[in-house]
Amino acid sequence: MSLVPTLLSGIVISYFKIIIKRPFDYLKPFGVAFLVFFILGLVFIGVLALMEIDSRLLKSESAIYFIMLIDFLQNPKLKKTVRGELVEP
């Protein structure tokens, strides 16, 4: 499973390097549709990579701290106790 995001990101990065060198040669035939699908592909690969990172973290001991950090970033007013209960400050 971890090989798929790595391969996809490598392919996208190589195409991105080609497009940066001569952008108009590659964007003219496809136009806006190519650009939209390219951006959607980058987002999809990013989601796959985050899912892979998340699954690895859930197997480690630091998963609880990662989950608490995500909860804090989503709603900084709520705080979790050691037992996992939500407490209003």
Mind telling me the C-alpha Rg?
A: 20 Å
Q: Order of strands side by side in the largest beta sheet? A: 1-2
Could you give the count of β-strands? Answer: 2
Query: Main β-sheet, in a few words?
Result: 2 strands, antiparallel
- The tally of domains stands at 2
Class computed from helices, strands and strand pairing: mainly alpha
**Helix run count:** 4
Name the helix and strand elements from N-terminus to C-terminus, one letter apiece. HHHHEE
Percent of residues in helices comes to: over 70%
Distance between the termini: 41 Å
Overall geometry comes to elongated
**Which stretches of 5+ consecutive residues score pLDDT under 50?**
none
Q: Note the beta-strand portion.
A: under 5%
Average pLDDT score:
67
Give a quick summary of the entry.
The chain is mostly helical and 89 residues long. It has 2 domains: 1-58; 60-89, no CATH class. It has 4 helices and 2 strands, in the order H-H-H-H-E-E.
SSE map:
Blueprint lengths: L2 H19 L1 H8 L1 H27 L4 H12 L4 E2 L5 E2 L2
Antiparallel strand pairs: 1-2
Describe the protein's architecture and organization.
It is built from 4 helices and 2 strands; from the N terminus they run ααααββ. About 75% of the residues lie in helices and about 5% in strands. The protein has about 90 residues and is mainly α. It has 2 domains: about 1-60; about 60-89, no CATH class. A hairpin with a 5-residue loop joins strand 1 (about 80) and strand 2. A two-stranded antiparallel ribbon has the order 1-2. Helix 1 packs antiparallel against helix 3.
